[in-house]
Amino acid sequence: MAAVLKKRALAEYNKSFKDSPPSKKLHLAKKPLIGSSAAAFVGLLEKCKSSDEALQLLLRVSDCLQFQESDVEEAIKKLSEHFQSEEESVVRVKILWLFCDIGLECPGVNLNNLIDETTHLIKNETSHKVIAQGIATLLKLGSKLSDDKILMMRLVAVAKDNLKDTSHQVKCRCLQLISELYPIYPESERTPDMSTEADAIVKLLGDYSHAEDARVRCEAFQSLLTMHERGQTLSASLYDLVCLALTDDYEIVREVALKLVWVLGNKYPENTVTLCDGETTMRLVDDAFVRICSAVNDLCMQVRALACTLLGTTRGVSDRFLLQTLDKQLMSNMKKKRTAHERGAELVRSGAWASGRRWADDAPGALLHHATVQLLPGGAAGAFVHGLEDELMEVRTAAVDAVCQLSMENVVFATTSLDFLVDMFNDEIEDVRLRAIDSLTRISHHIVLREDQLEIILGALEDYSMDVREGLHRMLGSCTVASKTCLEMCIDKILENLKRYPQDKRSTFRCVQRLGSSHASLVLPLTTRLLAVHPFFDMPEPDVEDPAYMCVLILVLNAAQHCTTMLPLFEEHTVKHYTYLRATMPHFVPYLPIGDAQQSSAEKIESAMDDSAVRRFFDSVLQHIDNTTLSTNVRLKMLQSAEEQLNKLAEMEPAVSGAAQFTSVFSRCVLVLHGALHATAGPPAHALAALTTDCLRLQHQFSGVSEQENACVWQLALRVCAARLCACASAPGPGPGTVVATGDKGGVAAALSAAAALTHHAELLDRLLASVGVEPDPFTIAVFRQLSMNADHKPPALARAILPLLQSAPLPVIPKPSLKIRMCTASILEPPADNDTVVRFSAGLVAGVALEAEVLRVRNPQALRVRVAYPDTRIHALVPPKDHLRPLDHQNTNEDGTQNVRLLTKVLISHGVWTEPCGVDISVCLAVDDGGREPPQLVELCRPVRVTVAPKPIKRGI
């Protein structure tokens, strides 16, 4: 009975061991069964007494859908026999559904036989649901055999035969099958007969656009779209047919018809169409554009949003129709206007002249009805005005994007649409405001802002949203203003807004930097007012740490780069402040020939970074390190000297700091590893921890590392793993017959973990060396040999075998540095390093500390963590939410594929009662997972910032 059969009894597994004495790995093999579980359920169909039981059994077959290749044909045969004897249509639908699942998921099934069986079953079927499911099954199965053109034509013929069905569901499935499976050949391979047959198929699909059911009409148009996407050329004669569907009563039909109008308009832009008056002709793309504009006033939101989206992607439209979308005024007095010459010519043709003897003898012959007058098609009038004023956010967003796309390619349209985009800055939805700001930024090279427009834009600077304010800063920095008054308005408003939102300091600096660079001639007359320069009196020296004064300095100094007339206007303290800003913020302040920075052109060229000079310096630093003829002590001293020189080079030359830091860290690892291995008491734990961290830094913190350099790093990490194993195994363990204490158990576990880490790292290194084609060094070869020989040995035995190899191995090879190496770094802007504010909160509760950091050249931003270290050595790694990681607006991606991100988050701090305030260290780290059993380790990207915290006891009572 079916109730007795259970999945647990039907899906048994047994354990068998692979016959390989050296490894003795456990291998799980599936026991071969006489019949799989799904086949067993299918075999019970003939015992079902009712359709309900058969349906439940088929549902269980669908859940466990697992067939042996030998059982598939028998199962299909039994399902087909039950289909023919089943009276309930629901069960027959489920059987055809199973045919589809079996063909798509079960290996070894013959799809041609399954298609033939499905076609045979639905041939004499009377149920509409069953036929529809059969066509759907044929569609999915045929998609896997699309290369068989003969089979595809057979399936298309089956679908054409079933198109006569009265059910809308069957018709829709048949239309879908024809559009997706009809074989379409490339134009170079098409014969006249093929083209005629394809045109007949297109005409057949188009004929069903007149069906009574709206779902069939929608599917007919969708099928035409599918044929177009697959490469079939649609005829321009379909245009009139599709245009009729734009007034359909159902929005699903209007939506698909809009897409087809857009396709035909872009496919045949220069074809001419005749309007309803029988005289006026216009280009097809213009008429399609006008008809899409008419859909902006549709009753359905989806149709309006789609119409706005399609308007933005229509190309080649005449300027008069584009500009008409921004103007609601179309005609005067609802009468068609004609020239005097046309009116006189019509009077001559009529043969009637006004005699003046009768009243109103010269009245027009007939007044035109307003519905027949069409100076310009009414749909284009104010289409974007309606879209931008729509009540729903989706339509307004699509309209803003469409205006932006059209403005990027048409200067006249960009200038005309500027006022409308500026008005969207006052929208109630933040996303719409952001879209408008980004759109204006993208078309900024086409426009010049006037005073009235700047008033609206600058008013939006008071927005509570940081995204909106920073977007406005980007937009103002990329735009051009019309006059000195406009620039003055911008500066005053930016400085005023900086007092209200001091957290926008970095974004404001970038904004005024771009404003100064692009408006040097307008900044010149404002220089004396901005810098408070008086012709007779010495003004007080401003505070260089004041953010408002820093903004003014950045603006003026960037303008002075393009207008040297400003330089004599600078006072002595301004020149000193320039030197300070140039040293602290070189990316905001350009080079100017004033103060201590005055240099001749030859000196500037000499001071510029020269790749060849840097390369020669690197070679001179490392030329004796790899000299094997020197003694080890001499090489170690030279390595220590090289590390110091490379650290200084990293500070002096930011452009090559990544390469210098990489080689410096590598050299430090070699020095520390050599010292740890030759220590009298064994490798110290703190040295091994530092070595592990430095190896992780070399592997994950640097980008642009070549394959050979990466192989050297991994071989160095193998030595560190071996040193860790030797240190853990050399710890004193329990003697024979003694009870193992808790600490000893921890030592044994550490040794086992170190051995597993060594084995795992060796496997990864072996694959890496084989993939890049690098020969391993002698120590790596020796470790590989020991691991293959001592696969079953315990960690102490493996450590005793590796320790002499480790101590006698020569120093690792220092890779030749590449100038393309870049280092991932982070800088914490908030909280500041010199913050003296004490964070006080009740013990046991949570306090939030605002954190703002900039992370440069990170490969995977999702691996960033915020490390919180408490005074009691507790460490928490917090994962920032995805929306707290934002791209830096000045440079989002780099040439090597890394990203620059901005981290804006809240660091949650909680602890028990402290007797006095203590410091909590906050830093940005990179979570590194090597794929082993150990949890991800943290690699610090910056120095920690200390926040003073004072958890106070909870007060009881009133």
Automatic annotation (TrEMBL):
Lineage: Eukaryota, Metazoa, Ecdysozoa, Arthropoda, Hexapoda
Protein name: Integrator complex subunit 4
PANTHER family in the record: INTEGRATOR COMPLEX SUBUNIT 4
UniProt subcellular location: Nucleus
SUPFAM superfamilies membership: ARM repeat
Main location: nucleus
Gene Ontology CC entries for this record: integrator complex
InterPro entries from the UniProt entry: ARM-like, ARM-type_fold, INTS4_8HBD, INTS4_C
GO biological process: one example: snRNA processing
Pfam families: INTS4_8HBD (PF24493), INTS4_C (PF25458)
Residue span, INTS4 8 helical bundle domain: 615-818
Domain (Integrator complex subunit 4/Protein SIEL C-terminal Ig-like): residue spans on this chain: 828-953
Annotated keywords: Nucleus
Signal peptide location: none
